[in-house]
Amino acid sequence: MEAAIPPLGETFGGFLADFFMKITKKDIEYIAHLSRLEVDDSLVDKFADQVSRILQYIDKLKDVDVSGVELMAGAALSTNVFREDIPHTPPGPEITLANAPEREDDFYMVPKAVG
Amino acid sequence: MQFHELTLFDARKLLDAKDISSVDLVTALLERIESCDGEIQAYITVDEKGALASARKADERLANGDSTPLLGIPVALKDLLCTKGLATTCASRMLEGFVPQYDATVVEKLKESGAVILGKTNLDEFAMGSSTENSGFHITRNPWSLDHVPGGSSGGSAAAVAARLCTASLGTDTGGSIRQPASHCGVVGIKPTYGRVSRFGLVSYASSLDQIGPITRDVRDTAIMLNALCGHDPRDTTSANVAVPDFTAALDEYETQGLKGMVAGIPKEFLSVKGLDSDVEKAFYHSVKQLESLGVEVKEISLPHTDYAVAAYYVIAPSEASSNLARFDGVRYGYRDTEAADLIGMYKKTKSKGFGDEVQRRIITGTYALSAGYYDAYYGQATKVRSLISQDFSRAFEGCDIIISPVAPTPAFKIGENVDDPLTMYLTDIFTLSTNMAGLPGISIPCGHGKTGLPIGFQMMANRFDEMALVRAAYGLEQTLALENCFPEM
């Protein structure tokens, strides 16, 4: 089970939080965990400060009235893309596994996944 | 004139006339790389052997009377494009030693057209940056002034063309990464319409914004490169199945019809941006005058949501990046940390050691913006603002053919100047990233030099799939400006 998102903006709560989204060290550690990153202790404070400043800037998006506006997820032509379902020969394990950091026979090897 | 100074067009003529061989050209460029790239460091990998072998093949074909548009022409590729059998690093420790098993579609197309691949150029790691200082290997220096950045993220590709270390190159542009370095290095760079060029084999940063395009010495070479690169590719579902014109015909259109009757819009919001350098402003209005002298009607237009573009972009791009870069997990390719005993630990150590700071910062910002409880407020809101930005452009293009602006608020900045301040670095993308948001084409061409001698670029944007208007107008301006001093002394 993932832990619930910890309260953000511990330093600036309530009303002020709308104007200054302060990301804490704890926030960075939690988000890093979700991203499967292990942020070095020496970097956590720096990241917390930089990401806070970025989010503070991004907060201006709240000023835009978007009522009734459709979201735009991409810039591709809005047409469905179909193709014939024709089987192709797969490239085979030698090509597929050519860059594997560790392999055994035709399998990728990874550290223990289940405790 | 020395071989390395030749434009693509001139090299083509000499190759076809058998006045030079591809081996001559490639050898001259390899020698130039040997003597100059120690200082510039535009390349990550130079494929000397492969390039000479391709050049010899090209010469055989030329001897048999064969000719294709890029036959024997040496090009460099941003190291974010997969090249079969040739290391592709994305300027990241994460992909050190990675050798793709296939070519990106654009690489296939260049090879089909006869191009010789000289090597792979430096970039900000995974294209995240505006200065090429975020490369995991080394910085690249601006050929006009070695203590300045070349721009980014395609800084290696732009510096290589400017320093005459290749005849033309490919870059990629997610928020200005072709146009801004082209501007800072005094060369021509175009970001085609989203979908115009296949992204298959391009390592994804922000898939809805990324686009590949050429960087060249002049506009004619850009047209020739576009002809080779554009077209539908079933392997990229966002690739547009639309007709591809002969882009060199736009040059003839200018020669026969000029630019009379063309309408160019200047977005008033762009020119009121804080921090716009006076030399950039001066060079911009000088070019506007030249366009007017060619019969272009110039008028003020409005893109009302400009002020929100950077904020929306820096939600959308990191969000897509956090998803795209999840694939680098140490299992199938690239770097793997061997310290951790369990799988999650291996993922974490691999990513943290493999990715540089800026990449980790964007993954964290993106993951945050997409996380439960914040998705609507950040990603949802940003994609709606993106709609409004796109609608602003659609309305503007009802009244004009092209939109013109500076490329960047200042000429190239000094190495190290913005490196600890990501937000300031992000704000330098203000003039370029709206076109990526809307999926539009944009070109940067040199339009002068600032007091310090650094080049300044002029940007033109057009409606979707109207690169013809860009090539025609850019060629017209280039001919009229007739800039001298467009080759850095090295």
From TrEMBL, chain A:
SUPFAM superfamilies: Glu-tRNAGln amidotransferase C subunit. GO terms for biological process: glutaminyl-tRNAGln biosynthesis via transamidation; regulation of translational fidelity; translation. GO terms for molecular function: asparaginyl-tRNA synthase (glutamine-hydrolyzing) activity; ATP binding; glutaminyl-tRNA synthase (glutamine-hydrolyzing) activity; transferase activity. The keyword Heme does not apply. It catalyses: L-glutamyl-tRNA(Gln) + L-glutamine + ATP + H2O = L-glutaminyl-tRNA(Gln) + L-glutamate + ADP + phosphate + H(+); L-aspartyl-tRNA(Asn) + L-glutamine + ATP + H2O = L-asparaginyl-tRNA(Asn) + L-glutamate + ADP + phosphate + 2 H(+). InterPro entries: Asp/Glu-ADT_sf_sub_c, GatC. Its EC number is 6.3.5.-. Heterotrimer of A, B and C subunits. HAMAP family: GatC. Allows the formation of correctly charged Asn-tRNA(Asn) or Gln-tRNA(Gln) through the transamidation of misacylated Asp-tRNA(Asn) or Glu-tRNA(Gln) in organisms which lack either or both of asparaginyl-tRNA or glutaminyl-tRNA synthetases. The reaction takes place in the presence of glutamine and ATP through an activated phospho-Asp-tRNA(Asn) or phospho-Glu-tRNA(Gln). This is Aspartyl/glutamyl-tRNA(Asn/Gln) amidotransferase subunit C. It comes from Desulfocicer vacuolatum DSM 3385. The gene is gatC.
UniProtKB/TrEMBL annotation, chain B:
Gene3D superfamilies: Amidase signature (AS) domain (3.90.1300.10). The active site is at K78, S153, S177. GO terms for molecular function: ATP binding; glutaminyl-tRNA synthase (glutamine-hydrolyzing) activity; transferase activity. GO terms for cellular component: glutamyl-tRNA(Gln) amidotransferase complex. It comes from the Bacteria. Its EC number is 6.3.5.7. It catalyses: L-glutamyl-tRNA(Gln) + L-glutamine + ATP + H2O = L-glutaminyl-tRNA(Gln) + L-glutamate + ADP + phosphate + H(+). InterPro entries: Amidase, Amidase_CS, Amidase_dom, AS_sf, GatA. One of its GO terms (biological process) is translation. Residues 24-470 form the Amidase domain. It is an enzyme of class 6 (ligase). Keywords: ATP-binding, Ligase, Nucleotide-binding, Protein biosynthesis, Transferase. Pfam families: Amidase. The keyword Protein biosynthesis applies. Allows the formation of correctly charged Gln-tRNA(Gln) through the transamidation of misacylated Glu-tRNA(Gln) in organisms which lack glutaminyl-tRNA synthetase. The reaction takes place in the presence of glutamine and ATP through an activated gamma-phospho-Glu-tRNA(Gln). Heterotrimer of A, B and C subunits. This is Glutamyl-tRNA(Gln) amidotransferase subunit A. It comes from Desulfocicer vacuolatum DSM 3385.
